[in-house]
């Protein structure tokens, strides 16, 4: 009997992990496909940073506005269905129209859906208790988002020869799997709660004097009062709790310097590299007899290659928790941003004055390969560890005694942090436009005009 029960617990955890992995993978894969296809979506004379701007600004609006505008509990099924419809519509617009303005509109639709979807899945992870299970869900979701980078960049690497219309059109079918996974595979929070998962670190989730009570299931539509057992007897608590704007500000204020600033810095530097510097990191096409020559056939292969390398290392680092590695201590969360700044400076100098250019271009390509790999590792570690630690933070005594308020506080806190990475990407898209232009001019001045041929 005990063996059967242990196997059932493993099956439920596997379903939870696979579900959140698929949520991260499918929700983010369209975003990555659009970025990887930047060279093919706009004319050669158009800075690729415009794609990045339209691919992140609507997402930022969703992440900034939705947590503050939402009142009461999250209706997950309705929101995910809406995200699915909007994503499909956006990708179909991109594939159906050749004009730049219509393609940017389609990108904006997909971006808003992706931002709202990411916010929703991170909030959904907080409905699973104890805290170790919530961390399990976050780890697999982060791994899925990293996998989306690898799948999206790799997919466009192989199908871009089919053209934008067919390649983007085929990808419009992917969002349909999100509501299917939510309905058919994801275990309900009540199932997890019934199995009484518990570990040593979960003791912080309760306070002396309060009996532990699992948080309400997210799709519980019953608006009747909740009976909460207390030391003095049963207490009737209303479910229709709503956090005020002051409550939300009090919750988000401690997160600004501890979590949001490091995450903002990492993404500002990371996407400045990806959209402003990487398009200019081009070298003569290597001979076919070399290893790099088997991968790089033309100058237009460099930018998709750098994106593929970056996305692969992001996947590895975002999967660190799901692979069983320990999280970074909170005090080390600024470290990825510091390393990211050093990588940006090195690649910037190489693009501008050629500090990594050698007689053998193969060594130059190798150096850039290693630096972009390190960039991806820093970005992935910052993402997964930030959201993990936010989800593991303690709640006050008043919140723990009221399960509905505790649920809404956790949902809001993890949802509000997403503003930081999206704002960093948005600023990077603004910076990358003039950065790419000026770096190309600097290369032309020193007699290297390869960037002008892209």
Walk me through this protein's architecture.
- With 454 residues, the chain is an all-alpha fold.
- The protein has helices at residues 2-36, 38-41, 49-69, 76-96, 100-125, 131-159, 164-171, 177-184, 189-194, 245-252, 255-277, 291-295, 302-318, 335-353, 361-392, 397-400, 403-445, and strands at 226-230, 233-237.
- The protein has a two-stranded antiparallel ribbon with strand order 1-2.
- It is globular.
- It is found in: Endomembrane system; Vacuole membrane.
- Residues 202-233 are annotated as: Disordered.
- Keywords: Amino-acid transport, Membrane, Transmembrane, Transmembrane helix, Transport, Vacuole.
- It is a multi-pass membrane protein.
Q: Specify the overall morphology.
A: globular
Number of helices: 17
In total, the number of domains comes to 1
Helix content: 55-70%
Q: By CATH's scheme, which homologous superfamily applies? A: MFS general substrate transporter like domains
Poorly predicted runs: 203-237
Q: Kindly report the oligomeric state of this protein.
A: single chain
Distance from N terminus to C terminus (CA atoms, Å) equals 65 Å
Q: Topology as H/E string?
A: HHHHHHHHHEEHHHHHHHH
The CATH topology comes to: Growth Hormone, Chain: A
Can you name the CATH architecture?
A: Up-down Bundle
Beta-strand share of residues:
under 5%
Based on CA atoms alone, the radius of gyration comes out at 23 Å
**Average pLDDT reading:** 83
Q: Any idea of the CATH class? A: Mainly Alpha
Order of strands in the sheet with the most strands?
1-2
* Helix and strand composition category: mainly alpha
Biggest sheet overview? 2 strands, antiparallel
Task: Work out the number of β strands.
Answer: 2
């Amino acid at each position: 009997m005990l063996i059967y029960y242990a196997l059932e617990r493993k099956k439920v955890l596997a379903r939870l992990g696979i579900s959140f992995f698929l949520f991260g993978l499918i929700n983010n894969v369209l975003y990555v496909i659009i970025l990887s296809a930047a060279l093919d979506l706009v004319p050669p004379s158009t800075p690729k940073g415009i794609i990045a701007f339209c691919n992140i600004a609507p997402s930022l609006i969703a992440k900034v506005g939705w947590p503050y505008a939402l009142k009461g509990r999250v209706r997950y099924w309705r929101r995910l269905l809406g995200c699915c419809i909007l994503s499909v519509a956006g990708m179909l617009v991109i594939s159906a129209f050749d004009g730049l303005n219509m393609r940017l509109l389609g990108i904006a639709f997909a971006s808003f859906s992706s931002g709202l979807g990411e916010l929703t899945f991170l909030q959904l992870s907080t409905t699973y208790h104890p805290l170790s299970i919530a961390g399990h869900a976050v780890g697999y979701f982060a791994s899925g988002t990293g996998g989306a980078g690898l799948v999206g960049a790799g997919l466009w690497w192989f199908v871009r020869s089919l053209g934008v219309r067919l390649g983007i059109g085929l990808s419009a079918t992917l969002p349909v799997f999100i509501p299917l996974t939510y309905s058919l595979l994801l275990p309900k929070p009540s199932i997890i709660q019934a199995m009484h998962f518990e570990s040593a670190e979960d003791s912080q989730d309760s306070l002396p004097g309060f009996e532990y009570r699992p948080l309400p299931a997210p799709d519980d539509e019953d608006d009747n009062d909740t009976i909460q057992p207390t030391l003095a007897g049963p207490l009737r608590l209303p479910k229709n709790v709503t956090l005020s704007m002051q409550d939300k500000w009090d919750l988000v204020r401690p997160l600004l310097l501890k979590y949001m600033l490091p995450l903002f810095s990492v993404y500002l530097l990371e996407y400045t590299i990806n959209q402003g510097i990487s398009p200019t990191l081009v070298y003569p096409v290597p001979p076919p007899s070399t290893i790099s020559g088997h991968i790089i056939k033309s100058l237009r292969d460099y930018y998709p290659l750098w994106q593929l390398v970056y996305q692969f290392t992001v996947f590895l680092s975002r999967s660190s928790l799901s692979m069983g590695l320990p999280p970074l201590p909170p005090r080390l969360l600024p470290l990825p941003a510091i390393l990211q700044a050093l990588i940006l400076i090195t690649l910037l100098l190489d693009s501008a004055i050629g500090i990594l250019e050698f007689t053998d271009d193969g060594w130059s390509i190798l150096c850039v390969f290693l630096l972009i790999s390190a960039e991806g590792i820093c970005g992935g570690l910052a993402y997964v560890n930030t959201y993990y630690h936010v989800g593991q933070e303690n709640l006050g005594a008043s919140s723990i005694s009221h399960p509905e308020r505790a649920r809404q506080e956790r949902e809001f806190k993890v949802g509000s942090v997403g503003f930081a990475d999206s704002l960093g990407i948005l600023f990077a898209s603004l910076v990358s436009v003039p950065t790419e232009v000026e770096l190309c001019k600097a290369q032309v001045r020193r007699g290297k005009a390869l960037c002008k041929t892209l």
